[in-house]
Batch of 3 targets.
Target 1
Amino acid sequence: MTRRLRFAAALLVCGLIAAAAPARATLYSFVDENGVTHYTNVPSDPRFRKVPGSAPPPAGRSGSASLTAEKYETEIARCADDHGVDSALVKAVIKAESNYDNRAISRAGAQGLMQLMPATARLRNVDNPFNPEQNIDGGVRHLKHLLKTFNGDTKLALAAYNAGENAVRKYNNSVPPYPETKNYVSTVLSHYGRYSGLVPGAGAGPIAAAPQTARIQEFVNAEGTRVFTNVPWKYLEAPGWQREQSR
């Protein structure tokens, strides 16, 4: 039976009161006889068990300082390298999705660092979406799938990550005209530039200031004009340009 997700009332109320804020309490879960997974931060049933990795950080370690790419640098680099995805892009997605809070839950039910929906987590074999290693690996594999599906078009892959593959196809393989999705794509690309170390500005965390070697990427337009650049987001946002390959 397909497992479904249900949040207990206490957690939903907290989410509605502070929808934009990441969930901070320890989470508990159990699977009932119908295969429904229940989550709550106020366990009232003896079947609830603590979700590994969901406990709040120790006193003195909370706050924005811990919500940076640096905390997960090793795991991000490993997964990005294993699956052939730009680590700067992975960091940008995590920044936009959860602001590096591995216990974040959206009102729609997306979970963890890369905000995997339950169906996506199952598809990518992620047993515990609140486990940073599992979440990043599953999220990177999903991102790689989307990049491959849309022929390396980062804008479309990000749009599909936010709105779903079918939404992108519905609008003839273009970014859907949803304000949330358009803003999401723009936000991720902005973070992408900062994490690549070539665009100054706040928002990507302390790690953005670290010097990094930028890869040269190739773009081509409908007329066959080719451009080689180390600032890819300029062309990712420009209409009519398609990324060919990374070098």
Target 2
Amino acid sequence: MEIKRFGRIFQDAAIRDGEPVINKAHKIKVAPKTFETLYTTVKEVMTLLEDAGMREREVRGIFPHLNQKDISACRAFAAVNMPDSKEYSRNNRNPDIKILLDENIPHSLVIPLSHHMSSLSHIYYEGMTSYMDDFIYWRPYMHIKDHSAETPEERTRRRGIKHIIISNDSDLCDLAYAQWQQRVMTCATPEDIDFTDTNTVYSINKWDIEKIEKDEKFCQKMAASILNTAHNPKGPWYKIRSNGSVYPGVTLQEMCKAAERNIEIEQYKAAKETGFNAPELS
């Protein structure tokens, strides 16, 4: 098995029987002048937190080589990838929506956001660190996994899932715009197009990212605003305001006007190239 990396966590078949471990080794004394290098598994940390009911500082007392960020990484990883974890059960309450945090959003925010939204994941925990934006945006439409054994009902349910990306990267907003623009340019009545099956990007600036963990009211309002707009988007991407509300970065009406303008420009260029008298552009 190749080494899989998930931010602070990794998996290697040669270490701890291939269980996910924290990327921070410590040495234990097994004999006089003999030490063994050991990695702490995510499951060990989560067992203490969930089954033994310990607090994070108590867990750090047992594993002094770990810090608060390591513990947060374990909780976030469990919320995404460990179905037998309580964090996972809390995070997967709504099967109709999937929310992906881009790698410019701290992975530790999976936990505070999961109090208000569900089905959260992170680029790290999807194994997509440093992947190109095109792949990240279009991934829900690609057959990454084998769906050949799906029933018609399962296929319909999967295709009906709403995919959301929260990012600080404007390139993802451009990809969302391009997906909508393609439909607008090829439809006679764009206002009748159903965009509910498209990905929606929510753009947040770096100052407001810090509020998610520190400001409960901001986090709560942001989550509510995203969930209220996700299934009936007014535009391909939204901007998250400093108060937690959201607004479309561009509306369908604005895109239709831009499409009409592009058609006028293309017709003007074509007329000029063929030698016909072309009306001057307004």
Target 3
Amino acid sequence: MADQNLVENDEPLLVAKSLSKSFGRINACRDVSFSLYPGEVLAIVGESGSGKSTLLQMLSGQLAPSAGHVSYRMRDGVTRDLTTLGEAERRFLFRTDWGFVHQDPAQGLRMAVSAGANVGERLMAVGWNHYGRIRETASDWLTRVEIDVARIDDAPRTYSGGMRQRLQIARNLVTEPRLVFMDEPTGGLDVSVQARLLDLLRSARRRAEPRRYHRHPRPRGGAPLVAPRDGDERRPRHRDRSHGPGARRPARALYPAPRLLDPAAMNFTI
């Protein structure tokens, strides 16, 4: 089993090749290529309107690229081009393997059902069926993201913007997905809450057994990031590099430090 995990960690989890996206005469992304390995964190840094969210939507199969393709290594070890997946297969990935934290939490929550149901339905999607256990786990995650458990039966529409974002993070992390996409996950949160959520994301890796996943929110002022971790107890291999003009290290790097990509210079290959 350990040897199998070593082999799996030598294979990329997500591969983008020559991704480009145009909206009429506007080039949102141009010739983006990289391979993301288990244990790596990729941070995309750039100004508003530089194509960060567009790139994240293409990486997660929500937006078709104008050119290039994205492939993902499934649980059976087979790497699939996301464009070849059917709608049911993509929905299955989002329910099980993937998490996606939207910049606008209303896009990532079911606003008409309770907070507990928002967290619990993710657990049911991966096979949980004991109501008491589901509610207990949902309560635990609300506590972790600093939401009063007394609000578990309230709908997110009664929450503040910051509370909705924290609920969305809990909803995505509760099932310990293989890959997490985050589009400005700490935007709109108080600085003190941001710091505690960063600690929560870091500690989630340590608690995950038998598979360990590592997730990071984006550097302040930056944009989406992708943060997977698979397999064994090894320290994940990591290429600590910055790309393009203006690329910068995050003010507070968590372990391991993310690679930074500047979408203002979208012609690169890692």
